[in-house]
Amino acid sequence: MNILILGATGFIGSATAARLLADGHRVTGLGRNPSRARLKLPDIKWIAADLSKMLHAEDWSAVIEGHDAVVNCAGALQDGLADELAATQHKAMLALYAAAQQARPLIVQISARTNGAAGDLPFLTTKRQADEALAASGLLMSSCARPSSSAATPMVVRRCCAPSLPCPSASRSFMQQVRSQQSRLMTWRRR
Predict the structure, then answer these.
(1) pLDDT number for residue 175
(2) Which of 49, 62, 141, 160 is disulfide-compatible with 107, CB 3.0–4.6 A?
(3) Hey, is 37 helix, strand or coil?
(4) How far, rounded to the nearest angstrom, does the alpha carbon of residue 64 sit from its chain's CA centroid?
(5) What's the CATH number where 139 sits?
(6) β 169-170/176-179 pair status
(7) What positions does the domain NAD(P)-binding occupy (predicted)?
(8) Start-end of H helices in the chain
(9) What is the pLDDT of residue 187?
């Protein structure tokens, strides 16, 4: 498969990219500084982009064209000089989902448990908004709740991108949970 990884320079994104590459996939990473990223992962193609600036579907159209899957490993823990949570984790994802309505790649969303006592924190609020928008989008998708140990995430993402992974559909919404030692994988398709 030809797979685009958002946040490919981060801890989870770089591990996911390396694993997918080792499994024989064509991998493209999206990051703010590809020249620095090539030092870490020289064998993947790099696209220079800042998610916080990709707020319209047309910003994404050429980026996702030709990709079978888009894996969103991007995330920022808090607003700061280089990161704006609402733009990066919510608004950019809405624009991606709008662009994906035409190209129809599989969308793999690496997220977090967004409910509970800390559910109102900006990090979790923006993750939840993106998760809910993706679930409502009608796109073929897999959503992976980040395990307590991020080391398992590349394995889960690999499963999400596997062409043999069944993606059931129903007239409303169907969710299948596959449990492993450290993670939950949910797959569904909405019509």
Answers:
(1) 33
(2) 141
(3) helix
(4) 12
(5) 3.40.50.720
(6) unpaired
(7) 7-139
(8) 11-22, 34-40, 57-64, 85, 92-103, 122-136, 153-161
(9) 29
Question: What CA dihedral angle connects 112, 124, 86 and 64, to 10 degrees?
Answer: 10
Side-chain-side CA neighbours of 56 within 13 Å: the count stands at 2
Encode pLDDT of 117-127 as tens digits: 777 777 777 78
Give the domain range for residue 82: 2-190
In the three-class reduction of DSSP (H, G, I as helix; E, B as strand; rest coil), residue 4 is classed as: strand
Q: Among residues of the chain, what percentage have pLDDT more than 90?
A: 29
**How many domains in the chain?**
1
Token code pair at residue 64: 């996702």
Mean pLDDT of 36-52: 93
For tokens 């280089």, the residue is 82
* pTM of the predicted structure, to 2 decimals: 0.70
